[in-house]
Amino acid sequence: MILTDQHRELQRTVRNFVEQELNPYVEEWEAAGSFPIKDVFRRLGELGLLGISKPESLGGMGLDFSYEAIFLEELGAAHCGGVPLSISVQTSMATPALARFADKVLQEEFLSAAIRGDAIASIAVSEPGAGSDVSAITTTAVADGDDYIVNGSKMWITNAPRADFFCTLVNTGGEKAHSNKSLLIIPANSPGVRVGSALHKMGMRASETAPVFFDSVRVPKRYRIGEEGSGFLLQMLQFQEERLAGAALTLKGLENCVSSTIDYVRERQAFGAPLLNNQSVHFALAEMQTEVECLRSLTYRAVEAYVNGEDVTTLASMAKLKSGRLTRTIPDQCLQYWGGMGYMEETAINRAYRDLRLTAIGGGADEVMLGIICKLMGILPSRKKQ
């Protein structure tokens, strides 16, 4: 993926936004466990950053996904993970299927407002018994004339307390798990929708996360994205952008771990000399930065293939897997060099350690990525004959 002048101009815009409108307030938002999402999203909408790869006819920029990836990479330089996570839910998790497969009327009703930042979107797929195994969801949508009646619950839903609508995966009938599902847009103010209490998380504290309950919620069938029964496939396609976004989001955060650790160990004295003077330390930091560059190259390659219309299931899964691995090892190794200070919550490395840990879980756990890669390599174990 070769960056053009247009890419670099977008980088500068996002970098300025992060430095001027996010980072000065991160400490306050982390302490509060929330941020002024509507204000931040409206500002992003004014800058056109919530619709980079969305159709111009709906208020987007109409650019390809490489620009979205650059936006997400720069967004990852924020001094916390929660705010970028909430933004990426809006741009790369809850709206891709709406932009690609919904009819124009549905797009005009929901997507245009999301692009402007006037509506907060949330993706409602995971359930208490169906996190990694999406096919196991139990939320149902039963046809009733021109409507569906939705019953069930969703868990770990980012943006839920502030959401205006949920892009929701439901079972609409049939026994086959991969063909009995549909994607529905469910307005948050629909009678029977209830958002539970905010969940207390290890990290990503500035983003609000909660369970969502659907109790006989009446949803017009016209709020369905695509054909009935196509929801599993559409969500798998939507996952491709989510996983590429997840990998892109981690790049700057990982680099911040390395650079902040270099600064710290240069000043930290141990046995009469800067800790950075130890070969094992500066070699390890060089190794970490090399790993980040490898992840960047893999992510850029996957994004370029995606833009060219190729099937990127393998590459996107590999990028997601690699980012999940590095977001565990790099913050952990860096925190070790911070010693006792790294164990204090007020340090940047401590927050990165907590925030980035989600990468190996959300959007498909590492083990799910490995399963996908193995399947596409043709190396899944064969079943024993009965």
UniProtKB/TrEMBL annotation:
Its cofactor is FAD. Residues 229-375 form the Acyl-CoA dehydrogenase/oxidase C-terminal domain. It comes from the Bacteria. GO terms for molecular function: acyl-CoA dehydrogenase activity; flavin adenine dinucleotide binding. Keywords: FAD, Flavoprotein, Oxidoreductase. Residues 4-118 form the Acyl-CoA dehydrogenase/oxidase N-terminal domain. SUPFAM superfamilies: Acyl-CoA dehydrogenase C-terminal domain-like (SSF47203), Acyl-CoA dehydrogenase NM domain-like (SSF56645). GO terms for biological process: fatty acid beta-oxidation using acyl-CoA dehydrogenase. Residues 123-217 form the Acyl-CoA oxidase/dehydrogenase middle domain. GO terms for cellular component: cytoplasm. Belongs to the acyl-CoA dehydrogenase family. This is Acyl-CoA dehydrogenase family protein.
